[in-house]
Design brief:
Length: about 160
């Protein structure tokens, strides 16, 4: 789908400069399971892409996807469309504690660099997972699954404060 014909559901996963088509394909599968859309930013693989196609297992053809040059462009686009925008980064409100408004866009950053600094300045909040240990880092696809399922469960009343 191109930028002019894409209609987005009330949940969007904004992918900021993800290098791995395998991680991106995994996230497309998460998006499909949650009825979400994807915004691929920068050099994040987006359809059509042979490695993405392999790991997305067909969801690259069914999940609404839009490409932006930068994650800041995506944040500005979705904010102007009325979305609440969060970034997944360390030090924020834990995913199962955060109260969010829909429609919602969540920015997931580059595996090594995180979310771009200029993008972080424009989001409505930071959502995170608690981390123990020295590395304090998990794969972006795993983080996306944990964060998004916690937010969705909370929205549906499955997690209460």
């Amino acid at each position: 789908m191109n930028n002019t014909e894409t209609t987005f559901p009330p949940l969007v996963l904004v992918l900021d400069r993800l290098r791995s088509a395998y991680n991106t394909g995994n996230i497309f599968r998460i998006a499909e399971a949650l009825g979400a859309g994807v915004a691929a930013c920068g050099y994040t693989p987006c359809p059509p892409h042979p490695k993405l196609e392999k790991t997305a297992m067909g969801t690259d053809k069914t999940v609404p996807c839009i490409h932006f040059e930068t994650s800041l462009d995506a944040v500005e686009y979705f904010r102007s469309a009325g979305y609440t925008v969060l970034a997944a980064e360390p030090g924020g409100t834990e995913a199962w504690e955060i109260d969010v408004e829909y429609p919602l866009a969540v920015v997931f950053g580059n595996e090594a660099l995180g979310v771009a600094a200029e993008t972080l300045e424009k989001v409505d909040g930071i959502v995170s997972l608690p981390m123990n240990g020295g590395k304090a880092s998990i794969n972006v696809g795993n983080a996306a699954a944990a964060i998004l399922y916690a937010i969705d469960a909370r929205r549906r009343g499955k997690i209460r404060k």
